[in-house]
């Protein structure tokens, strides 16, 4: 839906606060619902800077996030569309991302904690694959910590896509340091089978 945006607010419903993340065409801001006071994360996407490929990724991201409803995937509450911006209203974690969380522990995480979080990530990925959704940008920075709840959630589906079992994907995307070898080589790849190196990053940092 197209809604009027007021200065410092989105449709008069959310007060925008500080920026908590940045990307090429988007920023993530902390926001608060003006009536309930609930804090949320708002991904603000500048549509005027998007080319056709980026617009396609944006539609894929929204579609995949609407489809994937799982306790270990960040929930998309609402999508607000304006002529120049798209706002994705999402639930907010209280512990930052996994990279920062692990970095705050000088001696790494306790084995039981690392095992519990690792299990939750695998459950989220497996659920996505059951729905024929592949994330394609799995990394520590895209895992959000909900510290009070003792859980982690997968976020940022900007490179996600639907796949057909048995058919390989061609698009080389994601974060270079975490990409599978076949993606780095520019080969076609079996989406669910391409192993991200972020798995090894968790093992090293913990």
From TrEMBL:
Domain of life, per lineage: Eukaryota
Gene3D superfamilies: Transferase(Phosphotransferase) domain 1 (1.10.510.10)
Entry binding sites for ATP: 43
Family matches, as InterPro entries: Kinase-like_dom_sf, Prot_kinase_dom, Protein_kinase_ATP_BS, Ser/Thr_kinase_AS
EC nos: 2.7.11.1
One annotated GO molecular function: ATP binding
Entry's transmembrane regions: none
Domain Protein kinase: 14-206
GO BP, one annotated term: intracellular signal transduction
Catalytic activity: L-threonyl-[protein] + ATP = O-phospho-L-threonyl-[protein] + ADP + H(+); L-seryl-[protein] + ATP = O-phospho-L-seryl-[protein] + ADP + H(+)
Chain segments annotated as coiled-coil in the UniProt record: none
Classification via SUPFAM superfamilies: Protein kinase-like (PK-like)
Single GO cellular component term: cytoplasm
Keyword list, A-Z: ATP-binding, Kinase, Nucleotide-binding, Serine/threonine-protein kinase, Transferase
Family of this protein: Belongs to the protein kinase superfamily.
Protein name in UniProt: non-specific serine/threonine protein kinase
């Amino acid at each position: 839906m197209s809604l009027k945006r007021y200065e410092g607010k989105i449709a008069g419903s959310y007060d925008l606060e500080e920026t908590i993340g940045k990307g090429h065409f988007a920023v993530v801001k902390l926001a608060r619902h003006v009536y309930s006071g609930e804090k949320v994360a708002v991904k603000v996407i500048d549509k005027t800077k998007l080319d056709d490929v980026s617009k396609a990724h944006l539609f894929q991201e929204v579609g995949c996030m609407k489809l994937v409803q799982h306790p270990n995937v960040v929930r998309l509450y609402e999508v607000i569309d304006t002529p120049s911006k798209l706002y994705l209203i999402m639930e907010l974690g209280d512990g930052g991302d996994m990279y920062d969380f692990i970095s705050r522990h000088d001696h790494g995480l306790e084995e039981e904690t690392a095992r519990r979080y690792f299990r939750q990530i695998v459950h989220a990925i497996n659920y996505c694959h059951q729905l024929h959704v592949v994330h394609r940008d799995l990394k520590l920075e895209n895992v959000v910590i909900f510290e009070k709840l003792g859980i982690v959630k997968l976020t940022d589906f900007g490179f996600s896509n639907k796949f057909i079992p048995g058919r390989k994907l061609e698009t080389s995307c994601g974060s270079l340091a975490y990409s599978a070898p076949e993606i780095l080589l520019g080969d076609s790849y079996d989406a669910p089978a391409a192993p991200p190196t972020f798995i090894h990053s968790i093992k090293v940092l913990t």
